[in-house]
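haha ok so turns out i had the wrong file open the whole time. this is the CORRECT one, sorry everyone. sequence first:
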Amino acid sequence: MTEKLLTGNQAVAQAVKNSRVGVVSAYPITPSTPVVEEIAGMVESGEMNARLILVESEHSAMSACIGASLGGARAFTATSSHGLAYMHEMLHYAVNARTPVVMAVANRAIGPGWNIWADLSDSMSQRDTGWIQIYCESNQEIYDSIAMAYRVAEHEDVLLPAMVCYDGFVLSHTSMPVKLDDLSEFLDEYEAAWRVDFDNPSTHGNITPPDYFMDLRREVSRSHERALKIMDRVEREFFETFSRKTPLIAEHYRLDDADTAIVAAGAVSSEAKIAVDNLRRNGIKVGLFRIRCFRPFPVRHTIRALDGVEKIYVFDRSVSIGSEGQMFQEVKSAFYGLSSPPEIYGCVVGLGGRDVTSMVFEKTVMGEIEPGWIGEVIV
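then structure:
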């Protein structure tokens, strides 16, 4: 194991190399471009043994990854924002074709107006495609999550693509110490359950009749349910291998005796932890439930973790226009039908890169800021 000072994008590239990815296809877009620049350098120098496919669009990048996966290779790409939106059609294809592609998403706002700063709108808008979604708080988590995502995605009971999401610039371009463990101890070479074989060709109809299509989508949904159990196991095995606790489904921070809970995801969770510590010093029993896995959404984990909590404040760095924050919707849904659910409040924060400080969380919990759209910058 070595330790280096790496940006989030560099952590992705190192994880991809150490995961022995065979095919990388990508098209550049800010702020994820340095991921593939790093990989290209390693491929050119011989440090990484992979085929790098540079294409004319993100749609083609995902198409190439799907083809590579169907051919039996471990495949990877990286993108952001409008690039992810451009992939939308092929994101559905990757799911229904059961290709365990892993993609890094350096989260960035969707325009217009043109905005290169962080929020989670790009990946949250793809929540219904069927991709597994994992959100990171630190560069170490980014490195760990790439390997863990492959372990989950490639499992025979899952076989679904996964995106590892991290805040653009906040993590993608910020340097942090990252432990670069030998991932071969944790992640085997990829062996596809089925692959295109030119020596033994086969053909498949390109039309799926209604009954078969519904069965296909039902099986994809069941694979998401199974994925949560696999994630539990992968998290334990990761700790056993590297003696480092990296939560894969959710993190519980000072929740044991909490009567109030903050729910958040991504880099803003670090500010939420500062707020929790400050509020605790003032005698307010509050904790943080940090969502790592948004798809599949961990309903049972959420109910168990927040059992006994009286108030929940859900902070979304994205919003489903015409409705509410996506995490707020999911948390409310998790408690629907229970005999005495907690009070649940939704807060939309940090859109388009607007700063989210610990004081935003503190003042909301203390009742000094009304839940809803929190637009002001509070320092």
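Residues 250-373 form a domain with the Rossmann fold fold (CATH 3.40.50.920).
again sry for the mixup
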